[in-house]
Amino acid sequence: MFQFSLRQLTFLSEVARCGGIAPAARNLNVSAAAISSALDKLEAVTGLILFDRFPARGMRLTSAGADFLADADVLLTRAKALQRRAAELAKGETGTIRIGTHYAIAQQIVLPAVLTFRESYARVDIEVVEDDFSNLVAALDAGNVDALVVFNQGFGDTRFDVEIVKTVPPLVLLPASHPLANADSVDLESLSGIPYINASPAGPGPSYLDLLHAAGLEPEVPLTSQSREMVQAYVGKGLGFTLVGFQPRRNLTIEGDAVVTRPLAQEIGHFEIVLAVARAVKPPDLVTEFLDLCRTQA
């Protein structure tokens, strides 16, 4: 435990600057007796003689007192910075928020929310964690992220508050040159015989391929990847089709090939985009404001 206080160090610094207790007391708006008592206690707990005292001529730091004050001034400066930091945190002007999400949602919802949020909170650090569903839920449960913006693949218990913000039907992703690319919608039967490019499952719950199987379509699956960008690149090269939740930005793959999305003519199911927070922890105001922006973007 500390044996002296910031108040005592403040008195020490001001007396040294003014050369006496009386002027320091006037500047600090405290009694001379309070300063004198504080300095006596400071000398007692440190074992140092901090001042040479000259009757009618004031006070002067000893050599040991000057060395001690140099370190004390560093501590006082840091204490003032900490006080400012606390005030900024209390006002929500600084801090860190950590959001867990998936690649597609990061591009379509989280990124626009981040850009808008930074206009009002430029000093708030934002950490976006992209991972699969199971790892993100574990991170939320452990307190390693503040909230999730994810596809709902089954939270499975009551430890989380989960809010649906958007329902996403699957879209057919095709090369722009494909004959079906100009159709208003794509019938499942017209997809038979076209290879399916599969994104490997990233958590519990049905995948897009599972939805196709449930609807009676059993496409050939020659290529599978954990990377959504790689899957879209395969499609862009004319190697097959896939299902996605969102249209790629600018309708281009990472290889620069043009692709298009078309709605399915049949209803085969959908996915939910949800916001999730731990029920046992009240989200900080900054997190709540960020999630409000995600609702707007959904």
TrEMBL record:
Ligase in keyword set: no
Domain HTH lysR-type: 4-62
Keywords: DNA-binding, Transcription, Transcription regulation
One Pfam family cited in the UniProt record for this chain: LysR_substrate
Keyword DNA-binding belongs to the record: yes
One annotated Gene Ontology cellular component of this protein: protein-DNA complex
GO MF annotations, alphabetized: DNA binding; DNA-binding transcription factor activity
InterPro entries in the cross-refs: LysR_HTH_N, LysR_subst-bd, WH-like_DNA-bd_sf, WH_DNA-bd_sf
Family (UniProt): Belongs to the LysR transcriptional regulatory family.
The protein's name in its UniProt record: Transcriptional regulator
Organism: Phaeobacter gallaeciensis
